[in-house]
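seq/struct pair 1
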Amino acid sequence: MTPTREEMRKLALPALAALALVGAGAALVWSAGQALARAHGQLGAAQAERKQNAERLARIAEEEREVSEKLDVYKQLKRLNIIGEERRLEWADAITRIRTQRELLDLSYRVDRQKLLKSVPGKPGSVDFFASTMSVQLALLHEEDLLRFLADLRDSGNAYYSVKSCTIARTGQAATGTTITPRLRATCEIDLITVIDRGAKR
């Protein structure tokens, strides 16, 4: 059945309204899709920013931990008098004290002139490592005397003591029943290392 002209005229307005509603619905769907896409984008950006902030905080915490550890090491070196000018008088006093306490019968030493080992650039100034080589000769009743001497030397502070070499040889002297005769003789070379921080406040 073919609709009449009058019926077509009556259906035109509802048809236009339906088309408008369909268009509005499509626009709403598109707008919602755009809003959802923007929301996803903002969420992604916020998550990325949060991740960056978390990584930044983790780096700051790690840097603070490293600074704290280095500061602890610096304080310990300062307490042991390793940082600063060399202390030759203190070295001599320490050896005299060790010789007396350990009852070492024969001990002689010589400390060479200080030399620069390494200079490390830093801010605000460089850090210089110096070494004075000490040659030591001492008579031993047994090998443990040498180990005790080196341990006492390290414990005395005033430098970082780095043993370069030690040799032990028999003296060839026979033991007697009346006197204590050292039957070993040690010769050591020890670097007495000090550190000067050029950037430290005086």
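seq/struct pair 2
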Amino acid sequence: MGNAKDLRVTPVTAGAANALVKRVHYSGKVVQNSQLHLGVFLDGRLEGAMQFGPSLDKRKLQGLVAGTGWNDFIELNRMAFSEALPRNSESRALGVAMRLLRKHYPHLQWVVSFADGTQCGDGTIYRASGFVLTGIRKNTSIWAAPGGEQFSDHALRNVDGHTRKHAQAQRIVSKTTLTKDGHTALSNGGASMKGYREAGFRPLDGFQLRYLYFLDPSARGRLTVPLIPFDEIGKRGAAMHRGKTRVGSNTDDAPSVHEGQGGLIPTPTLQSVEAGD
């Protein structure tokens, strides 16, 4: 299978990264506003991708670190690795990616990313790669329709032009509430979450976790929210591995302090969610 040290991380086209993400990422979806695409190659084959871009919730996230300018941080909004990659590939690739960001984008102070503790994992790879945990919250961003179709809350509200998904959700609401009058989700073309709830939409059970990586070490001292010990994940019932909830308070992969290193489990990233404290 090779060695993680044999990996090559280099920029690739959006098309190449998107094709890899669609093939490997558990969601099968790409993030349209990704701007930087890094490919992970093994023996000349593209087997992984990391995609970076602006957060959809920049105004909410900017204040996590005092003194952060509008373009001083970036989101790792997709990370996908194939099973062909050797053990420890994720941390190796992330380490190279962070060095590339420091070298070529010196204005960037920190990186934010989210772990999907509702469908995938609680962020083992981040904890093993020097990220700090700054948010654990119940999922409110990934919703399921009565028939099982899944939508982001941004798509339901039609934020940033999620027209196709929004229209699909509206059709489901129309069918579900055919015999009801004045349901909120369709009134005046709006997208009230109350209306979706009335139509049977529900947030998926689980959690979303927010992680930060400091490209500029001084940024850590300007963090405006508390660091959360890693063992708090299990204590809050947010532990998940490969889509399965982990029982108990032990996350099994990293010590409770942020300086620790742990084992590695591929944990693809989310976008368009904000994990609160």
